[in-house]
Design a protein that fits this description.
Elements: H1 3-22, H2 38-44, E1 55-67, E2 70-77, E3 80-87, H3 88-91, H4 93-101, E4 107-116, E5 122-133, E6 143-145, E7 148-150, H5 156-161, H6 163-169, H7 171-193, E8 197-198, E9 204-205, E10 217-220, E11 225-229, H8 234-242, E12 247-255, E13 267-276, H9 280-297, E14 303-306, E15 309-312, E16 318-321, H10 322-330, H11 340-349, H12 360-372, E17 380-383, E18 395-396, E19 399-403, E20 405-410, E21 413-414, E22 416-420, H13 425-440, H14 451-458, E23 464-470, H15 471-478, H16 499-506
Parallel strand pairs: 3-5, 8-12, 16-17
Antiparallel strand pairs: 1-2, 1-4, 2-3, 4-5, 6-7, 9-11, 10-11, 12-13, 13-23, 14-15, 17-20, 18-19, 20-21, 20-22, 22-23
Helix pairs in contact: 6-7, 7-9, 10-12, 11-12, 13-14
């Protein structure tokens, strides 16, 4: 719809609001209590002669066809659409006049009885209509061109920025977020059934720990101190294991000051679970059970389409060591590389730019991300990560340079991280000290020293397995979504420019 035409419609609708107010009709009344919903009425209908109940339904006016003294329309509520039939002789002159003045998108309340039209459509015979809220701005409409139907709100940036409109006009978007809620409920129930206790840990932290990421910084005025929005809850959850809470989990918001892409949003949701007397293998089996159980609970099953491929998440998932799979896809054997410069050179030969990397393993991570990860379509556990990039994980008993750790991948994306948790306070302190050296060398994602966490370990943490799952990415998989923004109701966006300012810049 052209900007000039939209502006004119807005003016007309504002005038309608004023006209109603002048007639003593409140266009934004305080209350209306519906007692029924569209699909319940349709599926429960038997015969109008048996049911003369007056039903009250509320929703948006989805369609309207005025035909003199009688009109048809459709109301859309949370369950879907139901047809309405409005007649002047049944409603009275003034109320029918109000009905005719309604615009598409208006929030309305309808009272009436059920009947079946000659064409067999279950409908509401309207006794009265109440305007509940005027839709001042016209909703986007479905457009057809060259025989194709275009999305009712096709500008992707606007959809994310104006999710409230996106949800109104695109039913598939609402279904995604309804499914997201269901997925989270099933994850929570699964973990509770496994004996885990849900807890909450601080979102503002004195030390940003638990992950290799750049934090957001805020300031507490009363204490006059900087704080970090958490990048992970890990170190606090493991403090609870020290305290004797043997199985804990948290569904939490994390914040990482990183780029925005189809796989990354600076604010995202994680599930982290810690199990005393568990290890990497325990958490690997837990991951398989969790993913397959949730998929079955939501009706997806273990084999489903994602894009153009069929994903099979049935157990057991394939396993492959980190260095082996890098060598398979890139030809680079990082176990034989002796210097950062050599690693950067090898990466460049493989057409991966890793200039400025501060360690061999940062280069390896770049190569893995570009050449390996996109090929990991079917579920796979990448195992045996170098100890140097796993500062919170135990080393394997048969190889102290390799961490007892895995990452699950599916559909070309990492969906989690897990390991046997390091509980040796002396080893942990040495690893923190090495991470501090990396920060001083320019790696702003390296870990900070956390003396209190080391102190907690000195009180004794039992052997523990830990697992983190990216909820947004798991929802992407289960809803066939290909951008993380499609699974987050309000993803981070640049501020919308003032229309007048935008015109000045264009001019």
């Amino acid at each position: 719809m052209e900007e000039k035409e939209t502006s004119e419609l807005i003016k007309q609708r504002i005038q309608k609001v004023k006209d109603l107010a002048s007639q003593g009709i409140n266009p934004y009344p305080i209350r209306f209590f519906p007692n029924a919903f569209s699909q319940d009425l349709i599926t429960g209908f038997k015969d109008e002669s048996e049911d003369k109940t007056v039903y009250k339904i509320a929703g948006r006016l989805h369609a309207k066809r005025v035909m003199g003294k009688a009109s048809f329309g459709h109301i859309k509520d949370k369950q879907g659409l139901i047809q309405i039939y409005a007649a002047r002789d049944d409603m009275g002159e003034e109320n029918y006049k109000l009905f005719k003045s309604l615009d598409l998108g208006d929030q309305v309340g309808i009272e009436g009885t059920l009947f079946k039209t000659q064409k067999g459509e279950i409908s509401i015979h309207v006794n009265s209509v109440t305007l509940l809220a005027k839709c001042i701005r016209p909703l986007p409409v479905v457009k057809e061109k060259d025989g194709k139907v275009y999305d009712a709100f096709s500008d992707v940036e606007q959809r994310y920025r104006m999710r409230y409109v996106d949800l109104v006009v695109n039913d598939h978007v609402k279904k995604t977020f309804v499914m997201r809620s269901r997925i989270i409920q099933e994850i929570r129930q699964f973990l509770m059934n496994e004996g885990f206790l849900e807890v909450e840990t601080p979102m503002m932290q004195v030390i940003a720990g638990g992950a290799a990421a750049k934090p957001f910084i805020t300031h507490h005025n009363t204490l006059d101190m900087d704080l970090f929005l958490r990048i992970a809850p890990e170190l606090y959850l493991k403090r609870l294991i020290v305290g004797g809470m043997d199985r804990v989990f948290e569904l939490n918001r994390n914040f990482r000051n990183e780029g925005i892409s189809t796989k990354h949003n600076p604010e995202f949701t994680m599930m982290e679970a810690y199990m005393a007397y568990g290890d990497m293998e325990t958490m690997l089996q837990l991951t398989e059970r969790l993913v397959t159980t949730v998929a079955n609970k939501i009706g997806l099953g273990t084999k489903f389409a994602y894009g153009d491929v069929m994903i099979d998440i049935s157990s057991p998932w394939k396993r492959q060591p980190y260095l082996d799979i890098i060598k398979e896809y890139s030809g680079i054997d990082f176990s034989a590389i002796q210097s950062v410069d050599e690693a950067i050179k090898k990466a460049k030969e493989a057409k991966v730019n890793s200039e400025g990397a501060t360690s061999i393993w940062k280069v390896a991570d770049d190569v893995f991300s570009e050449l390996v990860e996109p090929n990991l379509i079917q579920p796979i556990f990448i195992t045996d990560f170098p100890k140097a990039i796993s500062p919170l994980a135990k080393s394997r008993e048969d190889n102290p340079d390799i961490a007892d750790r895995f990452e699950p991948y599916v559909a070309g994306r990492e969906i989690g991280n897990a390991f046997s948790e390091l509980n040796d306070p002396f080893d942990q302190k040495e690893r923190f000290e090495e991470q501090v050296k990396q920060r001083e060398a320019g790696d702003d994602e390296a870990f900070m020293m956390d003396e209190d966490y080391v102190r907690a370990l000195e009180y004794g943490m039992p052997p523990t397995g830990g697992l983190g799952i990216g909820i947004d990415r798991l929802v992407m998989l289960f809803t066939n979504s290909h951008s993380i923004r499609d699974t987050i109701l309000f993803p981070l966006m640049r501020p919308d420019k003032d229309p007048g300012q935008a015109k000045k810049e264009k001019g």
